[in-house]
Amino acid sequence: MLTVDFDRLAIGPSTKVIDVGCGAGRHAFEAYRRGADVVAFDRDGSELRSVETILRAMAETGEAPAAASAKVVLGDALSLPYADETFDCVIASEILEHVPQDDAAIAELVRVLKVGGTLAVSVPRWLPERVCWLLSDEYHANEGGHVRIYKASELRGKIVGGGMELTHTHHAHALHSPFWWLKCAVGVSNPDHPAVAAYHKLLVWDLMRRPKVTQLAESLLNPLVGKSVAMYFTKSRPTESEAAPGYSVASG
Question: Is the model's pTM score more than 0.85?
Fold first, then answer.
């Protein structure tokens, strides 16, 4: 289940991509399928071992082009171990809401992106997320859980302020909002509740079959209750004054 629209990323052979906070690897896998040189980056070693296993299987079965490459890297999003302007595309899907020092994380995402490259960021949308928080403390008040609810304008301002230009915004996963509201209402740690189990079965069926009826329903509902908001930015070349020695955001 992809949150980011890959058709907007121009990912193909030789494109250098990093998926920061890759989690289970869904976006890294898609970039690899499209022929990119991919880094799946996360702080969770257990998740990365699973991602590495799948990436290896993709290579062995020919699911990714032979010329493409993919590797997993364990590390901290606040200190990415790469030089400035290393990647053509940086993906950060559903991670910033987990990071207390989000400004520092955003600065790192921008730093490692090449001039002219694309940054794709997604976070939970304010309204669906607010409902989840109201229904359940367990949903967010846990180790590694969500530490904030973003308004789209707030996140956009943070990233644009870092020298990026917004190119597109959309919402995704409207069918997942009621699922999470239901889980929060009955208890996040109660996955066997009949209503939750039935809705989960529906979501799995939708993911596997992609029937037109649910695709149409989600496209109509996304602007209203899409669970996530995705934003796409391009890194602009700094002006002469910004590139000058001693320049800083504070001095500008």
Answer: yes
